[in-house]
Structures are given as structure tokens and as C-alpha cells.
Amino acid sequence: MKQLTSVIATGLALSLSLGAQAGTLEDVQKRGTVSCGVGTGLAGFSQKDENGVWSGLDVDVCRAVAAAVLGDASKVQYKPLTAKERFTALQSGEIDILSRNTTWTHTRDTSLGLNFAGVNYYDGQGFMVSKALGVKSALELDGAAVCIQAGTTTELNLADYFRTNGITYNAITFDTSDQTRAGFESGRCDVLTSDQSQLYALRIGLSDPSSAIVLPEVISKEPLGPVVSQGDDAWFNVVRWSLMAMIEAEFLGIDSASADKAKAEGNPSQKRLMGSEGDAGAKMGIPADWAYNIVKQVGNYAESFERNVGSGSSLKIARGLNAQWNKGGIMYSSPVR
User: Fold this and answer.
1) Which pTM does this prediction carry?
2) Is 229 helix (H, G, I), strand (E, B) or coil?
3) Is 229 exposed, middle or buried (0-12, 13-18, 19+ CB in 10 A)?
4) Phi first, then psi: what are they for 319, rounded to 5°?
5) Rounded distance, CA 190 to CA 183, Å?
6) In angstroms, rounded to a whole number, what is the distance separating the alpha carbons of residues 186 and 247?
7) Which one of 37, 90, 152, 199 has the lowest number of neighbouring Cβ atoms within 10 Å?
8) Nearest-CA neighbor of 191 among 128, 125, 131, 124?
9) pLDDT in tens, 216-254
């Protein structure tokens, strides 16, 4: 009987927990803003300028959700979070969505009470070293001191890679990416390891970016994407399809400049996405023009990629895996129909 009572109590607690989470969409609509957890400052992904304006690939996901739900991409409250803080902030309800260069892993998806809503950037872990070190491969790093950001997947990946290849290292951990870069630049470590996108972003922050190189090895898969709490399917759907809408708009040839024409004169697929046909918005409890507002105010995925990390940015990262599935990449959206 005692065991049965314990099981019932646990089930009740879980039910209450899920019930408490189940109204995020309604809460956001009443509040009039989306609370979004972002990075503490990473070029191309989430950074704040001197005027306090946030921008980046991850920031655009937050803006897309606000545009879909509230009709205004500017209705976002940003919460800068370190890697160690990010999951607790989401679990506690401090934020509605986490969009902070976060890798989708089995453990995070199954044991933390979280759901990944999709992938907005396919990445992989690499290594950055000073040119003066004279190293051409990660396999030459035996005994190196390695700068790592705490609370990230890079720690386990690094340990696995060095153990597999029979080489040793000395880990030096920091709380933020800026601290990690400062440690590398001051010579506290020989190597900085992180997702390759972060390495390029951190390199341009060095006093002499040309003094460092990124080694050729990519030692992991790092699918990065937005995260929400489990037990709130309505909110999960909105976040997932806000990202999908940006990807699908690129595939359908709709950008911020052509959104009006696609809505009024487009083919059936374009009109369904833009909300002039069908009931996609109603099925999620948001306005019919949800995707139109995303594309008009934030842009399609290609526009977001190019201005934040691609050819229109200081990072100049090639699309690579993040190109559309029919153009050599693996970026793919389910159809809106």
C-alpha cells in the first residue's frame, strides 16, 4: 500500500507540474511579450549592441515566435544566460523558450524535462590554436592545456576524443565564452575548443584574429536549436513551426521582400504558408498570418543566416550543412498543409 501511495503521489506531482506548464501560449498572449533565454554574447548568434538591441541567428528564433504569436517581432524580453544557467532557467519557468546555441542530445531531451523544437544550425566541435604553436592537426595536441566553457557538450566530446586517440590534455574551464576567449588570448591555454561556429565568432574578438587558426578536425555532431519545457504541446507546436516557417519560406522562394506578393498572388503552397488560404494558424491558436508576420518582419532562414553568420556578416560562414536539402545541405522543413 505504501508503494502504491508513493506511485500515486508521484503521478499527481507530475500531473500538477505538467498542468502548470500547459498554458505558456496563453501566458505569452496575455503578457504581450515572449521571454527568451539567449547567450551572454556570441557574435552571429546572440549579441547586444551599444544601443541594447539584440541580434543573431538564435535571437531571430525568438523574434519569429513573437511575430507568430503577437504579430510583432520586437515583443521579446531577452535573458542572457551562461551554459550552466540555461536549463534551470527554462525548467523553473523563468523563460518561455531557450534559444542559445544549445546542442540537442539524448540526455537533455529525455531526462531534463525539456523538448527540442528543431535545429536552426548544424554544427560540430573543433579546435582553435595560435599559429605560433605550429600545430596543423588536433592529433598533435598531446599534453596541451585546453580552454573549455563549463556546462557544455564540449567537455565530454573532448575527453572522448583524446582518450580514443591515446593523448592527454589539461582542461581549464570558464563560465562564459568571453572568459574562454580571454583565457586563450592571455596564454593560459594552448587550445580553445568549442563548436566551430563559436570558434569563428570568438576568433574575430581577438586583438589579432589572424594570429589564430581553426584546425581541420571536426570531432562531434552538434545540432543546435530552440528548447521548451515538456508537457506543453501547444507552445511546443508554436515554437517548432515558427522555425519551420522560416525554413519552408526559403524553400518556397518567399522572402521579406516578396511576402506580400506571395500572400496575395502566390501558388497554393505559398498562400497556405502566408495564411491567405487554409487554417494553419487556427490549428495552433494563433493568427492566420502568423508565418507571414515571421517572414515579413524577421525574414526566411536564408536571410537570417546570411546577415548573422553568412556573407553579410563578419563571420562569413558558408551554408554547408545548413543549406536547403535540395542544395547540398540537410536543412529541411515539413510542409504546411
Assistant:
1) 0.89
2) strand
3) buried
4) -60, -45
5) 10
6) 40
7) 199
8) 128
9) 999 999 999 999 999 999 999 999 999 999 999 999 999
